[in-house]
Amino acid sequence: MEEQPKLTDKDQSIVLRRLISYLKPHKKVIIFALFLLGLTVLGDVIGPILIKTFIDDYLTVRNFPQGPLIGLASAYIFIQLSNVFISYFQLLKFQEIALKIIQQMRIDVFTKVQNLGMRYFDKTPAGSIVSRVTNDTEAIKDMFVSVLVGFIQSAFLVVGVYIAMFILNVKLALVTLLLLPILFLIIRTYRRYSSVFYQDLRERLSQLNAKLAESLQGMSMIQAFRQEPRLKDEFNDINEQHWEAGKRNIKMDSLLLRPAIDLVYALALIMLLSYFGITSFNNTIEVGVIYAFVTYIDRFFEPINQVMQRLSIFQQAIVAASRVFKLLDEEELVPAQANTNARIEAGKIEFNNVTFSYDGKTDVLKNISFTANPGETVALVGHTGSGKSSIINLLMRFYEFEQGDILIDGESVKNFKVQELRQKMGLVLQDPFLFFGDIESNIRLHNQAMTDEEVRASAEFVQADAFINQLPDGYKQKVTERGSTFSSGQRQLVAFARTMATDPKILVLDEATANIDTETEVAIQSSLEKMRQGRTTIAIAHRLSTIQDAELILVLHQGEVVERGNHQHLLASKGLYHKMYLLQNGIVEETV
Amino acid sequence: MKVFLDLGWFFKERKKQYIVGIIMLMVVAFLQLLPPKIIGYVVDEIRLGTLTGGALLKDLLLLAGAAITMYIIRYYWRMMIFGSAILLARQLRARLFEHFTRMSPRFYQKRRVGDLMAHATNDLSAVQQTAGAGVLTLVDSLATGSFVIAAMAITIDWKLTLIALIPMPIMAYLTNYYGKQLHNRFHFAQEAFSSLNDKTQESISGIKVIKTFGQEKEDIQDFIQLSDDVVEKNIHVAKVDSLFDPTISAIVGVSFFLSIVFGARFIIAGDMTVGDLIAFTAYLGLLVWPMLAFGWLFNIVERGRASYDRIRALLAEPADIDDASHALDVKAQGDLKVHIDEFKFPDDERAALKNVHFTLKRGETLGIVGKTGSGKTAILKLLLREFEGYEGWITYGDHSINSYKKERLRSAIGYVPQDHFLFSTTIAGNIAFANTSARLEEVYEASRLAHIHEDILNFTSEYDTIVGERGVSLSGGQKQRISIARALMMKPELLILDDSLSAVDARTEEAILESLKASRVDETTIITAHRLSAIQHAHQIIVLHEGTIVEKGSHEELMILQGRYYEMYQLQQLEALVEMGGEA
Known about the structure:
Largest sheet of chain A: 6 strands, mixed
Number of strands of chain B: 10
CATH architecture of the largest domain in chain A: Up-down Bundle
Radius of gyration of chain B: 37 Å
Shape of chain A: elongated
Number of domains of chain A: 2
Number of domains of chain B: 3
Shape of chain B: elongated
Number of strands of chain A: 12
Structural class of chain A: alpha/beta
Radius of gyration of chain A: 36 Å
CATH topology of the largest domain in chain B: ABC transporter transmembrane region fold
Number of helices of chain B: 22
Oligomer: heterodimer
């Protein structure tokens, strides 16, 4: 369950203002839509006046001249008809604006997410980021569509109705102004209580669901420890509290929503009738005016009821928006790159005394220095947590580092443009992530300039073509659910092809052969060898057999290089590497 | 409407509330007829100049009385009907929970937590809607609709009523038609939204690949395209959605126009008064809601029926492991004899266990080793009676484990599972899970035995620290040790550690094993492990391979045998050495 941030009134108004600022780019369309809205309100307001004219000038005096009457009727029909059309377009326009705004907000959030550094992804569960981009923005959409638009409509209608009433009868219009503070009071009271009661209900619901979800997940534990009765009691407690909160909400809604507004409506009628009744004792009253006022009062209460029903949507949207804005304001960005024209030509990599920590407390890399000359392979070996992956993370600029420097062709990695780094360095991840689409699109990714031939050539180069050609749809074979229909080896081969398609100068392999099934292992090994030719390679390998020909092997332990040299040299020194080698080859007799 | 019959038991239970609530709804529907009538009456009096102060006061008091009565009644029917609806949700929720606690692991293997949650949330709220808003729309649309029409026809003019009602069925038809269109289009909009959701999910899971290939901009472009689709599909929805209000006002407008035109004729003919006409138009306004409500009713009821059917199906699932009719209500203790010839997990062809026969004497420790999938956990699950239906038998003391009451068997067993599941409560609450009334001293004692006491004292709120998302995040080793303390709190006759020391370091492991040995005199222990150091001290060790016992004996015996156990032992020695950086 997502935590509900507590927002003060001030926070809420800041969030609301920021939400409204999203309207700005649509100013013109909004003005147009408001104009249409104005027209419909005008129509709504004029209709009763026409009927009033008919009643007072013709019906009560029994005077029926054909010409004016037909004119009156056609005016009425014309207004009604055009109102139907205009209000349709007006409603549609507002919905369009709301949808566009939400789209913009989604794009903003998604773009922001793409620009966040890996640290952010480490500390934030993927599900909650997805929620920010889609679900929270959806909640905001509901607010724009049903609350804000409804609010504007009501405001227009209220103003229109009052103008008409003032035209018809100033005194009575003034009297009906009394309704406004009463309604305002009800709305304010409702908002005050609902922000407490409704929030409470939502919190209890989320507690209830959290308890249920947790109990379902831990059911085997609950049963093993015979705690079913206790958990049932606890659940029933929360269930009862939720029910109590529900009752409080029904009570509040019943006291302050529709029934209350209807009561005010009756009050308005009483005001009208007493005014007309008392005036009629001394003056003549045009009944049509009574009709018009009664109709106006009717119209007036409709939108108010609607807006009140939807206030809870508003509350939720504000909460959702505050979460979205928090993400938009996140400062954990990708490491900055200097804007120089430095190029990677030869592919020489140097680590100079690099020290690094993820949390600022414990160093995961301590004083790492090594050089990979162009075309050479440097292998990183060590036990989990020894710092191998961190070296790659820094080289790829996934994380910013402060101490020491990493040079490529003599230039700090911080000085290359991102595009240059990404183009010239190819990283193959341990978990070959395939996207929804087909094999071809997974090799090409978004690079539309790549020809089909190039796609095929890179697949052939890494010897992925053998299995691809056997697929029923070949390169067009669908990839679903992250490629779960393919074996891990096949996925890895596609990932190889994807990397080779960009023809990088530097190859970075992150335990690329860690989870490979035996069928594809041979293919993978020979592909890797081909890929490494002519490229500087930094390779992490669990299987030492895959890196025996590396020019330099670094053995890492707790963030430090504890042994370095080539395979023969390291074996001869009978250190940690030697033990690892023995372990992997299952040669146990010699050791103990 | 069948769902109303299916929910009949509940309506019967809340007979009083529903009957009173429905009567109140009808009273309100009737009282609603008063204001238009009074307006019409006053208008006529004013026009004729016959209005007196007394008559006006009487009318206004009547109006005020009706309004206040309606306010009060509206409040009460809501409490009765909506109050009952949430009570139904509460009852069903409690029943579901109760049912969930009786379901065996087999049930949880078949159904995902997410699905079960969906039943307990979405389906429940649809049923709640049926018992609340469903009843309301049914009664109110029928009552208000018929009362208003009756009032128009009887108290004003039946001919005019017929004329005014002509367009109304068109409205019912159109709104119903729009509703269907909306449903379809909404479905597409929902699909577009879920593709966008999938895309976002994928981008975030694959963020490293995207960054590696510098494809952020292209990925954003892709996202924009999908979001365009979402906008387009939603505009399709809006196109129908925006039809509702104008259509209703058009039809009401036509009906209204007809009433004025024909009403005027009737007035001239002297069949009715201007006041009648004004009252009549006000009644027309009252008719809009019942027309719409009727359309909603079908929606609510349809969803309610589907949801209630799903909930009933869930509640009808039988508990597949139950106590025998004369289950033994005695303490389970003694020697453990396992004689399993064959066991397959449900829906699995492969035998998980085959010919697993051994005896464990009371007070002894058994070690079970083997690779992942060799059947270690399967044996434990059978001991815990999480699964039944194997060939062979298991006895504990003098009886088959199946003849004990489940409750009695489980109270003898302290189980520490592989996936150490902790609850989001305090650490003390987690440790005292099986015995909430335990003294704090007992909790400390168990924690000391599990060598977690010192760690806990280092947390900000010590034993009151909350575990989980909103509290402290524990390391795997800490979680394991808390799980062990939790099991030790039961002072179990049989303690089962299912690979529960894998995340603690070698030294702590040794210390825990030592204190277990010292404190658990005459009590039986079963330990499964990857790491042999955890079971080296056991009286008896069995080595499992593909579900069957391949070696059996004490550590020394197995080492002499120089078989699988011996090989594993040698490799692990070396592994330990590598982990420590090569310096033993």
